[in-house]
């Protein structure tokens, strides 16, 4: 692998040398143990040794490899076992379950690292001539199973790793737009913008390890999408290399030129082509950023306050409202406190119970972010806080916000820590209208908990509102459980299915920002309709008639048996 490309660890999330450190969170493990009924003598279950993993045999097309040598400079193609392994899967629980056990059913035969749009064009054209399958690769952070082609033939498969294409190509300061190569990682993108006084404002949970092209291909949302929008709201134009030629859209703010070609490419998950360049709306970097915490008496009060903020045009840059279980986890997650802070915390709890008459086990934590000039930041915060107070919120100050900002990218490491201890932890996120949000929260929570009760010896589910809009919001469910012995992964699939079934049964989407991949594919036709599937398949057949680009995704006919469950889909 090129020296400047650093992949995440093959068996889990993040850098190889970084693992979740629980030592400074004294309340976290006791809370988890109580919630999941964990036994203290549970053995640690680490991944298998790397050297014990047997990789799938390579299928090399010698003519393609020879042509590639003429197209791509030496040192930018790799087929070592570690490089093939780190490019085989993303970071879904299904992916980690398999790699931790050494169950590697698929790996690309070769990984290519292009540096220019022209090199990507050459790679795709060579693949067409030799009928080679091509899978685009960003940072490998996807948790929906978008990286594993579901084809079962002997065609050679190449993975095109885009991370050497990481440059800011042009910044139009007057128009506040920036054109980037699509392989740029989140930190590198912000570094280049902020050196010129700008920001994109797009910070997904995977920010440290995901790429711009990956955000576009999966319809990503950032923590601050309430202000800046999801990625489809940020993209102005793009270039995408397809087997039928390069799609290149015009750099204009809006147009009325028929079907929006940008939106045919956004969310295409590598099935139509490889995104090489993206023109984006950017913003002047704010002078001040601050995050604060607020405690609402219950979830319904917090939800209503968030909607009123939209109604009264007073939307913070970020609003993350936890339900009671997620609030309890958030407080257990905090770092060790000094004696003085512990005393203050006890005093606040006493005040809330005795004076405010709050039931602490029903209280819900809101983390709200504000950005802008010092004056505008204070003005927006005061307006939002006035709305929060109308719904009974108690201001906790800046400390919860500081704690969140310090550890906002650490939570995925906790999943690996839990898997070591026999706990399967995952997320399912959705979106719905304001009028349906509370019923959906109740129904989905009950469905997930009921499935865990059947399949586990202890389960926990919590939820937070992660993104808000004029008409509705996203609900982000987190769950964890200890599966009963035997068929542990099938038990996990039954719990995951309960979540997704509940979303569709209650009028919500399969996914707000995690894409379809394999993990949501059995439900896709129910969400977008049979005619919608035909439209997607017609687009695929028109642009990629040989089915070379990430085959098997965004299609109909993918059953629950294909997904890993023998049961028929529920009606």
Given as residue ranges, the uncertain stretches (5+ residues, pLDDT < 50) are: none
Structural class: alpha+beta
Strand content: 15-25%
CATH superfamily membership of the domain at 288-408? FAD-linked oxidase, cap domain/gating helix
Q: Give the total of beta strands.
A: 18
Give the helix tally.
21
Q: Specify the helix fraction band.
A: 25-40%
CATH architecture of the domain at 288-408: 3-Layer(aba) Sandwich
CATH level 3 topology of the domain at 288-408: Vanillyl-alcohol Oxidase, Chain A, domain 3
Give the oligomeric state of the chains in this entry, treating copies of one chain as homo and distinct chains as hetero: single chain
- Average pLDDT number: 95
- Major sheet attributes: 7 strands, antiparallel
Beginning-to-end CA distance, first to last residue: 47 Å
Q: Within the largest sheet, what's the order of strands? A: 15-12-14-13-17-18-16
């Amino acid at each position: 692998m090129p020296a400047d490309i650093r992949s995440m660890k093959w068996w889990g999330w993040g850098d190889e040398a970084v693992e979740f450190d629980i030592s400074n969170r004294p309340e976290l493990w006791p809370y988890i143990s109580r919630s999941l009924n964990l036994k203290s003598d549970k053995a640690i279950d680490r991944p298998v040794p790397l050297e014990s993993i047997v990789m799938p045999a390579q299928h090399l097309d010698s003519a393609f490899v020879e042509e590639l040598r003429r197209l791509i400079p030496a040192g930018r193609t790799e087929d070592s076992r570690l490089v093939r392994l780190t490019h085989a899967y993303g970071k879904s629980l299904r992916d980690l379950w398999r790699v931790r056990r050494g169950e590697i059913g698929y790996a690309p035969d070769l990984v290519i690292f292009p540096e220019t749009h022209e090199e990507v064009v050459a790679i795709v054209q060579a693949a067409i001539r030799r009928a080679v399958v091509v899978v685009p690769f960003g940072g490998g952070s996807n948790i929906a199973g978008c990286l594993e082609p579901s084809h079962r033939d002997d065609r050679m498969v190449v993975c095109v790793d885009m991370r050497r294409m990481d440059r800011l190509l042009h910044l139009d300061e007057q128009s506040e737009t920036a054109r980037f190569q699509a392989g740029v990682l989140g930190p590198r993108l912000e570094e280049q913008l902020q050196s010129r006084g700008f920001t994109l404002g797009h910070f997904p949970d995977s920010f440290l390890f995901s790429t711009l092209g990956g955000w576009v291909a999966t319809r990503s949302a950032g923590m601050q999408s309430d202000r800046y929008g999801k990625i489809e709201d940020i993209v102005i134009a793009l270039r995408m290399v397809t087997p039928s030629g390069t799609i290149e859209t015009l750099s204009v703010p809006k147009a009325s030129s028929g079907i929006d070609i940008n939106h045919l490419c956004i969310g295409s998950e590598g099935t139509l082509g490889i995104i090489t360049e993206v023109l984006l709306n950017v913003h002047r970097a704010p002078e001040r950023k601050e995050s604060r915490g607020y405690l609402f008496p219950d979830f319904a009060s917090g939800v209503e306050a968030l909607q009123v903020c939209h109604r009264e045009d007073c939307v913070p840059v970020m609003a993350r409202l936890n339900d009671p279980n997620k609030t309890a986890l958030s407080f257990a997650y905090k770092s060790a406190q000094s004696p003085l802070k512990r005393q203050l915390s006890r005093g606040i709890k006493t005040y809330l119970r005795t004076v405010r008459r709050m039931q602490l086990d029903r209280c819900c934590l809101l983390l709200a972010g504000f950005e802008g000039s010092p004056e505008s930041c204070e003005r927006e915060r005061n307006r939002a806080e006035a709305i929060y107070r109308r719904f009974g919120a108690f201001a906790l100050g800046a400390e919860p916000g500081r704690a969140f900002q310090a550890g906002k990218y650490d939570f995925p490491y906790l999943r690996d820590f839990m898997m070591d201890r026999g706990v399967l932890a995952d997320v399912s996120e959705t979106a719905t209208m304001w009028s349906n949000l509370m019923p959906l929260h109740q129904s989905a929570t009950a469905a997930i908990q009921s499935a865990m009760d059947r399949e586990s010896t202890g389960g926990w589910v919590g939820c937070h509102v992660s993104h808000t809009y004029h008409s509705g919001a996203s609900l982000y469910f987190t769950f964890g459980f200890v599966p009963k012995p035997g068929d542990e992964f099938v038990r996990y699939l039954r719990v995951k299915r309960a979540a997704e079934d509940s979303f569709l049964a209650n009028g919500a989407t399969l996914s707000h920002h995690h894409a379809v991949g394999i993990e949501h594919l059995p439900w896709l036709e129910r969400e977008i309709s049979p005619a919608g599937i035909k439209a997607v398949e017609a687009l695929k057949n028109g642009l990629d008639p040989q089915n070379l680009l990430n085959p098997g995704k965004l299609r109909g006919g993918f059953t629950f048996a294909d997904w890993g469950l023998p049961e028929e889909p529920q009606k």
